[in-house]
Amino acid sequence: MVMLRAAEHGTAHEDCSLTTRPVVDQSHPKLNVLLAEDNPINRLLAQKLLQKQGHVVTLVNNGREALERWELNQSLQFDIILMDVQMPEMDGLQATADIRAKELVTGAHIPIIAVTAHAMKGDRERCLAAGMDGYISKPINPVELAATILAAFPGRPKLPNVPADPNPKPPSDAELLARFDGDGELLKELAGIFLQECPKMLDEIREALRTRDAKLLERAAHTLKGSVGNFALSGAWETAQRLELLAKSGEVSGAEDMFHTLEQQLAQFNQILVRHAAEPAHQSR
Ligand code: MN
Fold first, then answer.
1. For 207-228, how does the pLDDT look when each residue is reduced to its tens digit (9 = 90+)?
2. What is the whole-number distance in angstroms between the Cα of residue 71 and the centre of ligand 1?
């Protein structure tokens, strides 16, 4: 059944557990990507995601290989490097610092995106201090990957140009319940809290837009994204994510349209939650 549906759409090799559409967008630049990652499973996943987004990928296993490959291929020109942070032999921070040091001679600057398991606070700061241009956390989210790559090219469209789903499928009751381990009471309680908090979170985003405060916008969008994400990875989650990434790049212009979309998506999403919040107590208790 699943195979049949996937085959119809010509995406039989896609992960069928994900109901989201592929993230490919016509406006995506096709890039020559150098990917450094020591974990074979993470490497394969990142490679596949990048290829699905239309990029050509060269794989290396650690920072030293990345450095060597980058030096070797300077004539062939990689467009961007995706660099795992923790790797044996040479970690991503060291490799990046070495590349940046060598670039001082040529004046070139290849975008380097850190890929990290965001275990530690201050990770992002360390990556940026080492000369990296962007940062994504594992497990890699395809939408975030595409947006972060785009944001690493100052000359390209500033917006994380991930296509919005014109018809986001609302989460089914079963999907929502599954998020709460089948606990209807818990779903009801959290739906109520979310509905109470949602207007405040939107107010915060409004305030950030009004004062053109990118930092506040990033934080507010992140909070909303996290809250919505507890229920489902809906269209609203995706838009909040785009808003956050936009703000992270220091941009506020263009955010109004995204916010408008977010408001509409949340209005729909909240209707579903209202129903759950109002539902009479489930069998338990
Ligand atoms: Mn690693």
1. 999 999 999 999 999 889 888 8
2. 21
Q: Are residues 134 and 187 in the same domain?
A: no
Distance 139 CA to ligand 1 centre (A): 12
In a domain, 182, yes or no: yes
Closest CA to 61 of 83, 94, 33: 83
Are residues 208 and 117 both part of a single domain?
Answer: no
Residues 121 and 257 in one domain: no
Question: What tens digit of pLDDT does each residue of 87-98 get?
Answer: 999 999 999 999
Q: Is 115 among the domain residues?
A: yes
Ligand 1: centre distance to CA 248 (Å): 24
**Residues 17, 64 contacting (CB under 8 angstroms):** no
Contacts of 223 (CB under 8 A, 6+ apart): 201, 204
Question: How many domains, in total, are found in the chain?
Answer: 2
Task: For residue 98, report the distance from its CA to the centre of ligand 1, in Å.
Answer: 18
Low-confidence ranges of the chain (pLDDT < 70): 1-29, 74-76, 118-121, 154-168, 281-285
Output the six-digit token pair for 170: 């609302």
Q: Cα(99) to centroid of ligand 1, in Å?
A: 19
What is the model's pTM? 0.48
Distance from the CA of 210 to the center of ligand 1, in angstroms? 41
Domain that holds residue 221: 173-278
